[in-house]
Amino acid sequence: MKAPAIAPCLGVKDTGASVGFYEKLGFTALPAGDDPNDDIRSLLFGDAFALMVYRDAHLRDWLPVLKDTPVGAFGMFYLAVDDFDAYVAGIRPLVDAVKEGTHDGQPIFYFADPDGYVIGVVQKREW
């Protein structure tokens, strides 16, 4: 697997709960490392790296500059899928839509994960 140019690592309240949420949406979690005190998990979408989740307390210990940063983010992430309609139909019962519609003629579907991170689903396309 090719490493991405930028790899998001999200601080989350409960790594297991976040992994369970993303697995229901079609992601695959790679096993945690050998350190039982380090619960960082890499998530794949299809066969490509998508993001990492890391318990907020552990992330704050790792990078003390984040000690006062709340879980969740101001911003959003986009998930490009092969078949927008089929994917959204499959996850719609599992998530609460925060916005949906079109932008530049393309359908868009936004939902929030358990920690408040907003993810916008879009049709995969070449730039």
TrEMBL record:
Q: Which domain of life is it from?
A: Bacteria
Q: Which SUPFAM superfamilies match?
A: Glyoxalase/Bleomycin resistance protein/Dihydroxybiphenyl dioxygenase
Tell me which residues make up the VOC domain: 3-124
- Indicate yes or no for the key word Nucleus: no
Listed A to Z, the keywords are: Dioxygenase, Oxidoreductase
Output the InterPro entries linked to this UniProt entry. Answer: Glyas_Bleomycin-R_OHBP_Dase, Glyas_Fos-R_dOase_dom, VOC_core
What is an example of a GO molecular function annotated in this UniProt entry?
A: dioxygenase activity
UniProt-listed Pfam families: Glyoxalase (PF00903)
Instruction: Say yes or no: keyword Oxidoreductase present.
Output: yes
This chain belongs to the protein called: Glyoxalase/bleomycin resistance/dioxygenase family protein
Protein source organism: Streptomyces albireticuli
